[in-house]
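note to self — DONT lose this again. spent like an hour looking for the file last time. sequence + predicted structure for the chain T wanted, 312 res
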Amino acid sequence: MARLVAAMASSHAYTFYAPEDWDRRYERSRANYERINGEAPPEHPRCAAETLESDRLRFVPVRAALEQLRSEFAAADADALLILGDDQAESYPQVIPQFAVHLGGQVDAYNSESGATSHYACDSDLSHALARMLMEDGFDMAVSRSFPNDRLVTHAHAQILDFLNPRIPVVLVFINAVCPPAPTPARCYAFGQALARAIGAAPGPRRVIAYASGGLSHFSSDYPLGEYGGALRMGAICEEFDSMIAEWIEAGEGARLASLSSRDLIENGALEHRQWIALLGMVGERKPEWLVHAAFHRAIMNMGVAYWRLRA
């Protein structure tokens, strides 16, 4: 039978840039916001208080945590990498699935941040088995066998593939996070639990690593402001909310996130917590080996990186 041997989670986008490049990336976010909303975003007052030098110092633990993830991945001797990410009308441009699994045997992934396109093998047998068992467990899964133009452009997945550059087959799992209406935190946690059961029942002696891509709190340039209806705009970070979530996770109380509502997530810039919540459903009450998070207003996000060692 297959088994989950490790779990990883991280934010993406700015997280994979050096602080020296955040201003350039920020201008792209501002232009995107203006294109979508018809007006320039306000400057967050905390941006001016951050200096390049202070951000460099505070980014050191985040960078070190990312490098540790890469080292743990290389040392895990896994057979498959399962990535949980949301698709923002990228690889599914017309129909937004709430939960989906890609069934194809290979994929060309385009990282919009780096401009790189890389080819990866997919574990089609495992993907089929997971989709079938998730359906039997009460989740009406969407499935795909190819993507438009035969290219995966979902940044939540492509950036992690570019970061880890896996030489093992991958399983691509999609959770709608940022396109309301989206699954509740309770449903995402239950999905993670069902996914863990499906991995445990899958045939073959596979060793699987799961990676949740997204978060922590941030109001991005394309945040669904109409559905949100509040006053916060691009650049806002809900540090108190994120700290509460981090405390729960570090205490092995990830199930408490299932008690949150979708309204809690959207009011706190936490739509992409859904991927982390699903991962927490997979790991159960296990405490992470470590969790690092730091808010950077120049990067419009609270960056988080976490790791769970699940081997016996």
